[in-house]
Amino acid sequence: MQTSPKRPRPRQPRPTAFGVPSKSSTSRTPHPSPQSAQRNYEQYLMLARAEAQAGNSVGAENYYQHAEHYFRLMKAN
Prior knowledge:
Blueprint: H1 34-53, H2 57-76
């Protein structure tokens, strides 16, 4: 018995938490505001420190990289 070749499924927008597809990336602002960048930077640093204290170095490094992203955005502004 032969199987038919697999065809790629049509791409569908991913639903958000409320089941509504998110808007296209062109409608978003290019950079977060300086206040939100500062807030996100501090949040990711806090998460990284908590992971490091728990002994999860991989998780901590992941959060540190996220924090670094927002740090660079703050310096660019």
